[in-house]
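Record type: ASSEMBLY
Status: queued
Input:
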Amino acid sequence: MQVLRIVDFTKTPGARNRADGPFSGEQFREELLEPAFTLASERNEKLVVDLDGTQGYATSFLEEAFGGLARKYGSKKVEDLIEVRCTDEPDLVEEVMGYVRNPNG
Amino acid sequence: MQRQVVEIACPKILSLRTNPDETSAFLATIRSRSSPGMRLRVVAQGVREASPDGLMALAAALSSAKAEITGDLPADEGVADVFRESGVFDAKGIRRSWPGTPTAGAVFTLMGDEADGELAERCVMFMAEKLGRPGARLPATYRVLIECMANTVNHAGATERMPWYVHAHFDQTNQVGCYTFVDCGVGIVASLRRRLGQRLSHLFAGGDAAALNSALAGDVPSRTGLANRGRGLNGIRLVAIKGRIRRLLVIANRGRYDHDADQCHKLHSSYPGTVISWEVTASELR
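Status: finished
Output:
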């Protein structure tokens, strides 16, 4: 099982796209989340994504990261492979899974 | 030949929260007269009361003005101190700088032009220290700040990227922190009308207040058409609904949303830009 901690990417997540500013959801997804997801898929193992330890998250960051992942790989595959954890703000887990389950609204 | 100086008087109560119509009219006048070559004098002498949101909206308007501007400070020393404490106005009038570091006392102002988490973090850290828990987090405020910054980056400028301005003020007496986010762009409603007006004319049939209310309710689609996008304003309102920020106030163009009153009403004068203001206490710290 892999564990990917967003705080290792940044303590200060940004907005949606790289053009918006540093440490965007797009940057996180492309540089860290997708490679980790691909590896987890190849190994047929869970990928745990830990949201703890940052200053917080904009909705646009989370939607671009996780909704974007689901748009590329399909909601079911993402939901089957990813486990999202957050003890700082437990509500974020369901928010993220909402973006995964409904990536196109 | 010397150009004539145009004097513009501040309202006695400089506040978008408690005196929205006069204050937005005053700011709109500065905007409309601030073309290159103009000379303006902002007369603040008669100001009796200045709230953080009114002060910052004025400071932002002066920062983005293209005219040559001079001014004075309020005659009331207490109110003048409020102007000076912001760090934007100096002892002789109007300096229009943004220190980016906390001034002595209870105020922190800064500006930027992208969605920058490190700047948002600095705003949070300032307030956490004032609220008695250095290093604590304000995740809801952090979310609001990033969404506001992204909104300015993506929508405030008609043809170019606009700066945003943030003011954090701590009320020692009441132990309340107040954030004010301002940009001097086209304003949320005008931006929506420009992007979606033809497709969704019904949203604007009720005027700016109704359109702003729709945006806050999440009823306005993004230009991509994806339902999970374009919901930054709704996200801000949801944070207020959950009680994680207090006294949310949103002003854009002729719309004014007061979360506590659960009202969105029409301003008599259009505010040239966007102002989002909210408060936090120690109970919001994490």
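Annotation: Chain B touches chain A at residues 114-118, 120-121, 124, 137-143, 146-147, 149-150, 153-154, 226-229, 231-232, 235, 286 (CB under 8 Å).
Annotation: Chain B has a mean pLDDT of 86.
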